[in-house]
Amino acid sequence: MITGINTAELRILLLVVLFAICQPARPDVSLTVLLEQFAHITAADAAFREEKHMALLDTPLVLEGTLSYRAPDYLRKEVRTPERSAFEIVGDSLHIETGAERRTLSLDSHPLIRAFAESYRATLSGNAATLERYFETALSGTQEDWTLCLLPRDDHVRKYLESIVMRGHRGHIYRIRTLEASGDTSLMTITPAHD
Amino acid sequence: MTRRSLLPLSVWLLLMLAGAGALRGTPVTHDLTQFLPSGATQQQHLAASLLSNGPASRLILIGLEDAPPRQLEVTSRRMVRALEASGLFSQVSNGTQINMDSLQLEFRYRYLLDPDSTASSFDVQHLHNALQQRLNELSSALPIMDRRQLTADPTAALHSLLREWRDVRKPHLLYGVWFSPDDRRALIAAITRASGLDTDAQRQAIDAIHAAFAASASTPGTRLLLTGSAVFADTARDTIRANLRSLSLTASLLVAAILLFVYRPPALLVLSGIPIVSGLLAGSVATALLFGNIHGITLVFGITLLGIAIDYPIHLFSHLQRNRTPWQSMAHIWPTLRLGVITTCLGYLAFARRDFTGLAQLGVFTTCGLLAAAAATRWLLPSLLDYVKLQEMRAISVTGRYLSLRISRCAAFTILAVAGSVLALLAVLSPPEWETDLSALSPVSESARRLDSSLRSAISAPDLSQLIVVSCPDPEAMLEASERVVVKLHDAVSLGLLSGLDAPTRYLPSSATQKLRQGYIPEAPAASQRLASALQGLPFKKDAFTPFLDALSESRTLPPLTISDVEGTLTGLRIQPLLFNDESGWHALILLSGVAPGAGFREWWQQQEMPDALLIDLKETSASMLAGFRDSTLDRLLLGNFLILLVLATGLRSISSALLVTAPILLAVALTSVLLGAMGERLSMFHLIALLLTAGIGIDYSLFFRHGQERDTERVSTVHALLVCAVSTLTVFGILSCSPLPVLHSIGITTAIGTPLCFLLALAASRCTRRTRQEGDNPARPS
Fold it and tell me: Which is the CATH superfamily of the domain at A8-192?
């Protein structure tokens, strides 16, 4: 496992590697076309399973819960196990629930949370402009199996977050891999709810 | 004649020039606390110094409204940054998260400052629970991203320290900044570095807030609301200035119009201004020399001088006759006028108290002003009148003639009887009440006070009306004594007598407490052993928490933090408003919130034995200060009355004459006070001063009515003079009563009611006594 040293060399190396993965010679899919498919989605509900690998821990943490999206700007992440907690974003507001406590914050004053939230929400709502505002994007693969690499633009965010890589199939995201600047990673697997 | 007229004029001009020279550079203060009586007891003394220089006097609350909440949040954040950069404020807060980078000292001392620290803080079970808690946080929907401190502070000691900082006030948060509960107003609290008494520095701070707002507001139409005692003082200064200008201008113009109408030659108008200008200048010079400054309210009070001093030239003008020179006319009325001036001045001197700077200034200002005005009338005006071509006075003299000749004795008795019965009736039905609320006397408007209380409650600013002051000669002893008081007060909290408290020791415990907490920290081998046991069953790596073990061993040897160590740090900023030191030593303020209504808490407190701590109820203390002051003012009123009677009896060479002169005025003054009560005015010291002023004016009337009884022509000019006096006085004080400043309003309304009553009752009394005297008494002529 990579240790949490955030040096310029490591970053450059990482970028090279990521772009090498993300950019094949002949891209089969364009971001515009991909995002258009998402733009038709008005509601999405899914179950997720998240594995967190941290330098601090011997064994990874495993979280399970649900994700809900309602067009154009509502997103909720709810953890059911091991401990119930949730966050919700509506527009520019962030609501956090832990136990009985519920707090409202501004996404603008929490750029890191904004980056996390927008990676998923802006993709689902097909909002290329928002996505481009917070990330450098690189898309590769095919319609059937695409990979979207997101590199945060904000310096403060980059202190903690290295990259977010999403894999999907047409208008579905089924895996989100997060790499933190400390070297800690998280892998989230998403299964659409069938109703 | 020419030499005789030039000499007084040149002397006067020289005096005026000298006076103007003496006034140069005299500061005008607007310190409202000068108009608060300084206390006699220790409680009152502390309360007065808290009101003027305590934390409350340095707090400015800022409200932002009339824009969407998101915009207000942005404006709020920008303003806080701008205000912090200005360097004028020791603390600016809007609820935003504390920047961890500015907490280095607190982080280093976390195990000495952590309020949750106990003997069991570092035992295995406690450590295990804390680690489990951290694990839960890592697996929450919104993980803590900044994990730099996790390995050094797994028990989250810094977090519980910061929670202690936040718990005192829990204003409503929206988008991470303070908002009013209805989400319409963003709120910021700023504490100025400068003392609340430094009006110029406070002005600078207020200007900085306006500038920060102008630079930060992103939406046009956003409104800035400001409140706090510094803001009040500043507004009061502006109000006083604006009032001074508009009221004195209006009053002067109206009085000038009356004089012009009555006496016609404009030259007389100019002459009537001379005593007033002399009086204002003399009053200012005397005040400046005695006090080193002139208070804004004293200057405003100068307008009332206009209302009294204008009487002197009026008496002279009305008594001018073709067959007498102005000097002869002056000599004729002088004994009466002199008596009137002396009695009025005596009344004011009774108010010149050393323990009440504001009132002392008013007393000195008025006394010296009136003496100068009388002197100018006596020795300067007659010489100048030689040059004025007199014309027939008009119009008002018809009324005067009617009043002086036609009022029958029967009618006069009826007037007195009606006045007496109204007095008796009102005194029984609605006796006037005393004003006990100090805030009602402040020049702060009702709407400003309402805004203040709404911002205060929204921001959960502690209620400063009740607090405990712990006083000790040195700071360390003070912190220890505060800790003992806080422990006791927690009993009161559990008894439900109190909902919470804030004390400097919440942020900086005494050295003794810090040393005690150092004793809880295990030595290195024990610490690593306990940590290893605590990690059992948890997925954390064995060596992940080495930074924590290092911090523990460092904490065991740190020298405890003192008040001077924390200066300039966030802890310093937190304790600074809760401390003050003066010549008597160090004082810690323990602020109480949610004190149960009723006397429960007070009774509980009295049972505790806390020699260094004093419970101060600012509202009650200031009310008792007011009441004490009022009582001693009443004593002085009686003393003043006695002196006036003595002077009158000496001047008139008859006690019964003196009584006859004062009786109608006492009736008029008593009637005025019950009428004020019936109108819903609560009587304050300002009303009392005005009653005294009215009595001074009334005695003047009464003396002149008595003076002009010998001949009908004399009587006509006397009544004429008094009528003009009464009309101009009514005008001046009627205008004052429209002022929004309580001090001016009280004085204005009291005198505006009292003067016509004095005129009427003195006239009626003179009719009754004249008949009586004609029937046999030997008239006692004034000397």
Answer: Lipoprotein localisation LolA/LolB/LppX (2.50.20.10)
